[in-house]
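so i finally got all the pieces together for this one. its two components total, 556 residues if u count the protein bits. some of the lines might not be protein, just check the labels. i wanna see the whole assembly predicted at once instead of chain by chain like last time, that was a mess tbh
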Amino acid sequence: MMMDLLQALGSGILVGMVYALLGLGVVIVFRASEAFNFAVGEFLVVGAFLFLVFNSALRLPILVALPLALLAAGAVGGLIERLTIKPLLGRNPISMTIVTLGLANVLRSLVQLVFGAHTYPFELRLPDIKLEIGDLLFLSEALWAAMLSLATFGLVILFLFRTRWGVAIRATSESQAKALAFGIDAGFILFLVWMVSAVCIAISGIVISNFGSLSYVTGIVGLRAIPVVLIGGMDSIGGALVGGIVVGVCEALVGAYIEPRGLIGFKEVAPYILLLIVLIFRPYGLFGTVRIERV
Amino acid sequence: MLAVENLRVVYHDVISVLNGISLTVNQGENLIIIGANGAGKTTLLRAISGMIEFYDGDIIDGDVKVEGASVKGIDATAVMRKHRLTYVMEDRPVFWYLTIEENLKAAAYCRWDGGVKADIEQALDHFPVLRRLGHRTAGYLSGGEQQMLAIAMALMTKPRILLLDEPSLGLAPRVVEELFEIIRRLHKGGLTVVLVEQNAHAALSIGTRGYVMETGRVVLEGSARELLANEDVREFYLGSGEGERKSYRDAKRYKRRKRWL
């Protein structure tokens, strides 16, 4: 009984790290532009397919294919920002959010057009590091996914808090007008943010696909970003980490204790129920900034 | 050094705010622009600094020239980098969630020289109160401290022309005094300052020359001393006109007179 609980908690935390990285990709875009990127699932699929192209089609070793795929994913993110988001700089963030809805459809169709509706086997071919402690078993894929996600999360935080671009991103996230007035090119910063976000989401896509296979519908996992960032707080980087782990653990516990009692598929719904409960008590999420507006 | 020529600005294609305003700023001046709410002072600074498009405004006529070169249609970062013209927006434009040091670093973003660290130290020497507050987040500073930080941030950009938009807004009189002393010192140090203020007396006391704006036009100009002594300015902006209080008819006559200026 205790082992089951520990297994569920451990697995939930590992998967939660991946969700946290996914959430981070959404949060940094939201902080910079106050727009929610609804195309997160499609970014995830594009990133994973780019890796598949470099690794499987071009037969490049993982150490070459991964950086190339991430560079390409970043470039795709930057290109999309230039074409669709930049023209809306300074406008109502709702416009950008609506653009991302359209973007999701366009990207999904493009992926389907290029790669078809097949399911591709996906394997990172990383060393086996599965962990067995008594009756507990943590799969190598889950451990690698958590480690890669956590490492990326840490690097992004270092980037945001220790580099000039990071400080500029945080400044622009607070106010594009103030940033422009002090000579920070808000347009370039937004471009940079979308690139970083695309890389984060691509890594999530790659490690998620490593659990089995990849197809254009893998993007559905991107929807997990919604409860993650809403529970953690739309504008909180720390909140993305906590939200990711909360959602991961919630899924794992439901999978271990509720689904076996006949509620098949409840695992998918549970994070949204949890989200509703959190929002009732904390409308801005666990760590979101409470906005005070004068009326 | 800076010339605004017959400038007309509209917001959202319909709301006309500047209606053919012209003015000049000479090198080393501390130019004061005063005017009531809605006169177009902030819009003027936005137009000069290249921020106007960000606010959905358009320059539909006229020009803004810095050292003879037109900056019309050029975005704010380019104007700032090319002409070292820094605009300190109203309402203490600091980044609330960044620390004092991060604010200074953010303001130095456009610089690639190696002197940023030394300049941060210099800015903190200039504003000892900011050094004392250490790594505090800007959002937790008082209004006066935030305004000092905003000016310190502007200095990090190494400006040649500093546009200040109502720095005294919402500050206690003693803090305003301190702030204006800082602006006076900066001007004495050779910086060209354009100060937009509603606190006309304090501003004109430290200025060299001034303009009075109303409904998007200049209605009066002169040396700061002349403006301080001007009866209309004293009556309508300094609230210290001599003699009896003006009747509504007098006020109307004054407004009619301004239209011809």
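Strands of chain A lie at 120-121, 131-133, 136-138, 213-214.
The mean pLDDT of chain A is 92.
anyway lmk what u think
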